[in-house]
Design a protein that fits this description.
The complex is a heterodimer of chains A (about 280) and B (about 280). By secondary structure, chain A is mainly alpha-helical. Chain A has one domain: MetI-like fold. Chain A is built from twelve helices and two strands, in the order ααββαααααααααα. In chain A, a hairpin with a 4-residue loop joins strand 1 and strand 2. The chains are: A mainly alpha (about 280), B mainly alpha (about 280).
């Protein structure tokens, strides 16, 4: 009997330790990022690092302001393109689509959610860049291209989250609006959609997180010039691109500055995650 | 009344336009890559040796297979054990459990380039493993751990409490109940999580470039560097020398990912049938 008890205790202990791995991982990530990034940030100067407009590793000038703006611009562009298309598609799928077509569309959306970002990036490189170049001018590797590509990439996320929250709205709302004499479109847009607002916002925030964190696809289409953005047809570099492009050959302070870029990105993402979980807990209440 | 109709028509057409746009773009992406890539899939693409003239995918495929298997081998058991603790042992209002939930959620949101950075700082530099398959594998382990924990948790939650009570009533201990009764019921759910993470591993690029490295040959052991298929694809397209090969590599990647997708939806169907 005693050995059984002993075994049970040992197993519980073992399961407990396994559960601690994720805490351990987060702690390790924080420790290594911050201890490697903060000293460099200090050496450069926090203000100079965050608001410096020049990134010239050769001259030891490290300002990531252009990259911060780059990330924000590209993400904003992705939201402008991806959110309306995604939310409207979700509405169509839940309320207007014939069931058979709906099944096909959902399969396609599921597939697109699983496509690796390099493949998106490659497609952007061979199709989108020439397209933007020929229609709008410039050399094609620009904010606009990156925004369109990211907008397409966040579509599956936005569609599936919005769809779930639209489906969660009680059917009585919709029927009530219809009974009051509203048309189908009116009841969906002015009754069901507002009721699903917090869920859709959560989906949008999730999409923002994905867009800011996206690396490979952006690197392949954004041009990656480390300068202040001027115009949507000019190239730009995002925070993520900055790390991936220069990490391979960086040393000393340059390397530290790149890790510090990672720290800034990490903080960005943490803030977005916090917003997301606040919204999510609100919806549950 | 007329105004109402007008608004409705506009809203309705907006819906159609948006859906049309989303679906057409998605179909276009897949079709474009398949049409351009399929003609270039030939014997040379699958040559055993990688040379700069013939960029074979075989070394990259083998590396992908190796990294995927290793990552799953490490993460799946620990993820399942963690989920068992969270669902079967811990009180869900416990502060510590909440803390674990927060950390797993945090891990889900971190972009892969941050994982890559961490992997480079920790495994490659601090532990001095250099660019190697093992550094890449362990980095990926952290990435998929939250996916495994979450899906397993959900699967375990879905097992009805009567099963547990019946098992206890028959005199089985907790450990036996978990391994003989609860886990077997949760297998389809856990498997779908595993498949989901496999897709994630195969598509990962940013986290692997500075951990597993970009060497194009078949590595001799796990402490040697090797590129996976996604990294291979990135390098091919950024070099721009073998665009046709890049297309065909993309086709292979897509086929693998779609295959995984099909497998998981097949499983999902099975789950709903047994319920």
């Amino acid at each position: 009997m005693k050995t059984v008890l002993y075994k049970e205790k040992a197993a519980e202990c073992f399961f407990f330790l396994s559960a601690c791995i994720s805490i351990f991982a987060v702690a390790l990530i924080c420790i290594f990022l911050f201890t490697n990034g903060l000293p460099a940030m200090k050496e450069i100067g926090f203000i100079d690092f965050l608001s410096g407009k020049k990134w010239k590793p050769g001259m030891d000038t490290f300002g990531i302001y252009p990259m911060i703006l780059g990330s924000i611009y590209v993400t904003a562009g992705a939201i402008i393109i991806g959110v309306p298309a995604g939310v409207l598609t979700a509405i169509f799928l839940t309320k207007f689509c014939p069931p058979r077509l709906c099944k096909i569309f959902k399969t396609i959306i599921d597939l697109m959610a699983g496509v690796p970002s390099v493949v998106y990036g490659f497609w952007g490189m061979v199709v989108l860049v020439p397209f933007v170049k020929n229609t709008f001018g410039g050399n094609g590797n620009c904010i606009l291209t990156a925004s369109i590509l990211l907008g397409i990439m966040i579509l599956p996320t936005i569609i599936s989250v919005s769809e779930a929250s639209l489906q969660a709205v009680p059917k009585t709302y919709y029927e009530g609006a219809l009974a009051l004499g509203a048309t189908k479109e009116q009841s969906v847009f002015f009754v069901v959609l507002p009721a699903a607002k917090s869920g859709i916002t959560a989906g949008i925030i999730l999409g923002i997180g994905r867009a800011i964190g996206e690396t490979m696809a952006v690197v392949m289409v954004a041009g990656n010039q480390a300068r202040m953005p001027n115009g949507i047809l000019r190239g730009i570099r995002t925070l993520t691109a900055n790390i991936v492009i220069e990490m391979g050959y960086a040393a000393d302070l340059h390397r530290g500055a790149l890790i510090a870029t990672g720290v800034v990105l990490f903080i960005f993402i943490m803030v977005i995650n916090l917003l997301f979980s606040i919204l999510k807990s609100k919806r549950n209440i | 009344m007329k105004k109402n109709n007008f608004i409705s028509t506009i809203l309705c057409s907006l819906l159609y336009i948006a859906t049309f746009f989303s679906v057409i773009v998605m179909i276009f992406i897949i079709a474009h890559i398949f049409i351009k890539g399929l003609p270039y899939i030939d014997k040379n693409l699958f040559a055993l040796e990688y040379t700069s003239e013939n960029v074979s995918v075989i070394p990259a495929l083998l590396n992908t297979l190796c990294i995927t298997l290793l990552t799953l081998l490490i993460t799946v058991p620990s993820g399942i054990f963690a989920a068992i603790y969270l669902t079967e042992y811990a009180n869900s209002n416990n502060k510590f459990v909440k803390f674990i939930r927060i950390t797993t959620q945090t891990l889900t949101g971190i972009p892969s380039i941050i994982y890559g950075l961490f992997g480079m700082l920790f495994f490659v530099t601090f532990l001095k493993w250099g660019y190697s398959l093992i550094s890449g594998t362990l980095t990926l382990c952290i990435i998929i751990l939250p996916v495994i924990i979450r899906t397993t948790e959900e699967a375990l939650f879905a097992v009805p409490d009567i099963y547990r009570e019946a098992s206890f009533g028959l005199g089985a201990g907790k450990l036996r109940t978990i391994f003989k009764v609860i886990l077997p019921c949760a297998v389809p759910g856990i498997l779908s999580g595993v498949i989901l993470s496999t897709g994630r591993i195969i598509g990962e690029t940013a986290a692997l470039i500075y951990t597993a490295g970009t060497v194009a040959n078949i590595p001799s052991n796990i402490f040697a560097s090797g590129r996976t298929l996604s990294v291979h694809m990135y390098i091919l397209s950024s070099e721009g020398l073998h665009i046709n090969k890049a297309y065909s590599t993309a086709v292979i990647l897509l086929v693998i990912v779609f295959g995984i997708n099909a497998l998981s939806s097949l499983l999902a169907k099975k789950v709903t049938f047994t319920k």
